[in-house]
Amino acid sequence: xxxxxxxxxxxxxxxxxxxxxxxxxxxxxxxxxxxxxxxxxxxxxxxxxxxxxxxxxxxxxxxxxxxxxxxxxxxxxxxxxxxxxxxxxxxxxxxxxxxxxxxxxxxxxxxxxxxxxxxxxxxxxxxxxxxxxxxxxxxxxxxxxxxxxxxxxxxxxxxxxxxxxxxxxxxxxxxxxxxxxxxxxxxxxxxxxxxxxxxxxxxxxxxxxxxxxxxxxxxxxxxxxxxxxxxxxxxxxxxxxxxxxxxxxxxxxxxxxxxxxxxxxxxxxxxxxxxxxxxxxxxxxxxxxxxxxxxxxxxxxxxxxxxxxxxxxxxxxxxxxxxxxxxxxxxxxxxxxxxxxxxxxxxxxxxxxxxxxx
Length: 358
Hints:
The chain has 358 residues and is mainly alpha-helical. It has a domain at 45-193. The chain is built from five helices and nine strands; from the N terminus they run αααααβββββββββ. The strands form four sheets. A three-stranded antiparallel β-sheet has the order 7-8-9, with no helix packed on it. 15% of the residues are buried. The model is unreliable at 1-21 and 271-323 (pLDDT under 50).
């Protein structure tokens, strides 16, 4: 007889073969002892449990792997972000350094050594410009650790640009200061050398004020004005010197001319010639006599007289002026003309008659 209990477990009641009536062989009441599960069912249950546990382990492992992948991807993204920010900072530092190299530093490097007080500043600037910039590192890598290593390189490059920008700026300022020092020194030297040599003293006053203020622009402007004023005074002084020399030369020429004229007057002068005939008496007595006398006094006047014994007499006096006048044994000068002496036959000894003067 088969009964079904409340938990749906099938049991089989075996008729008693002995023992106490109403009980089975184990002594349990008949119909109350369940039958043990079969081996297959136990194995199946165990396999099912193992499969469940294995599935659960695989799922956990897969989950953990997925979590690791996601974590690594996140870390890589974060590393790349950090590297990108560092690269941006490097780019700014690089641009600032490059602008300085191409701008103020390049301009200062062209400064002539004669324009600076300390030429060593130009040498230092040249060394700074010769510095070699580092190679640019890219933010590449498939792992966060690789990208972080690149970030460290980029940070080093950023530091190089910032450091060299500072040192290059210092070198540029040193050259600028040296130029100003030279400008001030030159202005002071010009103040000293221009004293008393400018047409307008106000130009030197302006230069002195600019030098005291160390104002390079004002010094350059005032220097130009002082030099122009010095040139103006030089031109004026040269013109005055020429005028003075010309006046002195004219005065000397006039004096020389006056002296020459005076000398000429002393040499030729104005001569007054006077010829005086005392009296001449001519008598026809058969005896004649005559004499002729010429004298040349120091004042350039001449006189002559002649006398003769006869029935007639003649006297006369004459004078002339102009040119050299006078007589000697060879002849006479009258009005600048020389008349040589000749023998008058009428005045020979034994001759009777007139014997003219001359």
